[in-house]
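With this grant's support, we have paired protein sequences with backbone structure tokens. One protein thus recorded is set out beneath this paragraph:

_____
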Amino acid sequence: MARKIITAIDVGSSKITTVISSVEDNKTPSVIGVCTYPSKGIKKGVVVNIDDATNAISESVTAAERMAGVTISDVYVSINGELVTSLNNKGVVAVAGSEITIDDTYRAIENARTLSLPDNLNPIHIIPREFVVDNQGGIKYPIGMSGGRLEVETHIITAPNSYWQNIKKCVEQIGLHVYDVIFNGWASSLSVLTDTEKELGVTLMDIGAGTTCIAIFEEGAIIYSSSIPLGGNSITSDIAIGLQVSLEDAEKIKVNMSDILDNKCNVKKGKDMDSTPALLRRADEPVEKKTKSDEVDLSDFGVEKSVSKEMIQKIVEARCEEIFEMAKENVSKAGYDIAMPAGVVLTGGSALLRNITKLTQSVFGVAARVGYPSGLSGMTEEISDPSFACVQGLIKHALDDDVDISGNEKGKVNVNGFFEKVGEWFKSLLP
């Protein structure tokens, strides 16, 4: 099998991340090129300046190509923004023959997408949840079954036309073809959630810089997805206002929160000390015991100011709680419960804030964990923390069957490994 190159670009509000991977002989994708470049022209997940966004994407892609030693042509790109919404819809068809075929499933899914949407909305994902054969539900793979009537329950993720058109334009202006545009929350779920969590019921919250994406799963399928206009940048702004420091200094304080709150300021770092920024350390790493000192000197982080640890903690927790409460309200209005049996999984840069899981558990009343992306090999050190869940998920999405049954670029059907699983299903029938 010839080597296949898969490239993913996560277009975020704080950074543009390009990951180039190589796949050979159906093995695990190996990362061969990575670049994270400061985002420009993107606000709350949406393109606000075409030229700035194009230049930032170009810088990220060029550096990743240089590292990988390849020239790319096709890419998978993330999409985000507070106007990303979702709905569930049903498609029904009469089975053409005595047994259900792949064509029958395509027709059913196509029927599900024939719904009335405002002209400004585009269905970016049509994801089959389950099939119903002659009123028998709970069927994941109906091909080969006998029946006369086939129904499919689908989850449809939509976004304003301007969202995907502007992102596509930015990428195409640097000479690349956008193979697919993928919702951030869906991509992140592919890299951090387990099959067991999806089956039991789980909520994923990807807390990015400008937005927080939500994706809820039940009985192995996605049932709800959306985005709210609050993220890590809101926390940074609150710190800047509350402590009367610049946004740059506020970001330093946020990134080094664990060191600040554990009295590690003004300690000369020797060779035996971990110099990894606190925000990038895994949540289960041991920390030094707190002292009773309340005032901390932030000069170690380039901030010429002494502040109260209690104040920092209260500012961060208050904003995080607001994000969670807004997410809860958003989901509740749609008729769903964010508190699922398997709990809440947090990704995004802010997922590693101090005590974030405890606060999550307090607000939602269920278990919470930080989701670290997995499933890739090669140069993964730079993309191993939760802020890179989306870009790793884009690579995994590209490996799944993603079939455009519409004949155009509006609303691709995400079969999500459907054909591979169908093949396994047929094999199970053999003696």
